[in-house]
Automatic annotation (TrEMBL):
Transmembrane segments: 51-75
Name by which UniProt lists this protein: Uncharacterized protein
Keywords, in A-Z order: Membrane, Transmembrane, Transmembrane helix
Amino acid sequence: MTPKKVSKIRVNRILQNFNLYYNQDGQLVRRLLYGRKKKTNMWKPTNPTELYTLGLLIFTVVLAIISAIQIFLFIQSNRQATRASEAALSAAEAAVESNDISRQIMIAEQRPWIKHEVNIGGPLSYTAEKGWHFPLEYSLTNIGKSPGTMVSFYAQMIPFNISVYPKGSIVNNVPQGSPLPGTDIAEELQKISQIPEDKEWLKMSFGQILFPNELAKGLLNINANMELFEKAKEHEGFSGQFLVLVCVKYGSTLNDEMYRTAKSYQLWKTVSGQSITLEGETISASELALTESPQLFTKIIE
């Protein structure tokens, strides 16, 4: 072999080592290799120590996989248990709410309902010692389906003032400033309906059981608060009438609630154009009228 051929062979081997070759145009380019991977030699145990190490490694990997599976299953089981517990709790709460609603409906259908009626029981009179006093006849009827317990009826009489502008506050027929406040009937009814919470209400009239369709009648002598009527003398808006506020309160055998019905009635002279004199007088029953107030919010029914 000539030195020239040997040199060419060496050059070709060098080019092959670097994946280089000459193309048809005589240019030196890199050869692209596809699907060829560099062959690597895997480690193989050759002695007992290496075999033991390999076995220990495999055992550790298997144990880790088993532990991971157990943790995953535990988490899933815990989630399912939590969901089941939440579902059971929701079902229990729904059952309790349903029972409460059913009970409320039953109470509303079966509860006692006590209505009252009032009439004039005698003359309206005034004395310097007692002030104004008035006998009021009343009747209570349980129109509900269960007994009414701790039934109590009570009443109050107050002057009826209306809202007016004070004298001298109207200039050129135009009111100036604010009017004097009149009697707030709704507020007064709230006051009288709260009396049982403030006082020993059984002593005010009576506390008894009223069965369905049972009727109870009575006569209540109302002694008015003298201070209220003295203040009314200074109020320019006194209407010439009195207000009689009544309230009946009662309980139920179905629950611990107390129910109440409060109304306002106007007491006035039937003689045309005449007002009740605040300074005092005696007016016979035939000259009096007692009518339910037509104003808005003059009832409380619970």
